[in-house]
Amino acid sequence: MKIIKPKLHYDNMTGVLSGEAIGEKIARIKDMAGFYADENSRKRFDQDVLVYRVQYYSPVPEGTEGGLFFGNTTVFPGKVGDEYFMTKGHYHAIGNRGEYYWCIEGSGLLLMMDQDNHTWAEEMLPGSLHYMPAYVAHRSINVRKEPLVFGACWPSDAGHEYGLILEKGFGLRVKEIKGAMTLVKY
Ligand code: PAN
Ligand code: ZN
After folding, report:
1. CA of 154, nearest ligand number
2. How confident is the model at residue 132 (pLDDT cuts 50, 70, 90)?
3. Which residues lie across from 80 on neighbouring strands?
4. Is 71 in the pocket of ligand 1 (CB under 6 A)?
């Protein structure tokens, strides 16, 4: 019997994936219109600055029922006005799909919001594991001066619904106020 060599490699220390069918998604300041409280500060920023990068393995086409995607996200350090760099945040387009995150490097907060806008935060630090239940929006925030790196695994038909977040916000914002990380209402 032929033993097949692995086609994919995952570096446990850094979360970096290598091999075939690995895609990348990049979010720069210019891609974040409407997500930060201070839109004027965002407009004044160098528009090409990287806010976060996602690397993911798609063994099946997006939208395939029953498959799984596996990836990592690096949220770079920085702030727009007094608000820390963060991901856009989303519900899954198919709302009843859950997800796992695990923190690899750096530290931050994972904000979660249910359909009634009830919002809570979990601390992300190396080794923390986070289960996002169905119908719960999720956004990750880097509250330090080093990159925040976390892994993720989600259903390949989950999809991403960003429009609702732009419309109704995320319950809480994470800002640096008088030198301290502070949660404020939207
Ligand atoms: C993650 C996120 C990733 C970027 O892979 O897509 O961290 O965040 P946004 O999609 O909110 O920009 C995930 O949750 N996938 O479902
Ligand atoms: Zn997700």
Report:
1. 1
2. very high
3. 83
4. yes
Tens-digit pLDDT profile for residues 21-41: 899 999 999 999 999 999 999
In the reported structure, the alpha carbon of residue 132 is separated from the centroid of ligand 2 by a whole-number distance in angstroms of: 8
**Rg, C-alpha atoms of the chain:** 17
24 alpha carbon, closest ligand: 1
Please compute the mean of the pLDDT values over residues 139-152 and round it to a whole number: 98
14 has pLDDT over 90:
yes
**Residue 29 DSSP class:** G
Ligand 1 mutation pick, 68, 72, 99, 138, max ligand atoms within 8 A of CB: 138
90 lines ligand 1 (CB under 6 A): yes
Task: Classify the C-alpha dihedral 38-41-43-48 as positive or negative.
Answer: negative
Pick the CATH number of 8-185 from 3.40.50.1390, 2.40.128.50, 2.60.120.10, 2.30.110.10: 2.60.120.10
Distance of CA 160 from the midpoint of ligand 2 (Å): 7
Is the pLDDT confidence value at 186 over 90? Answer: no
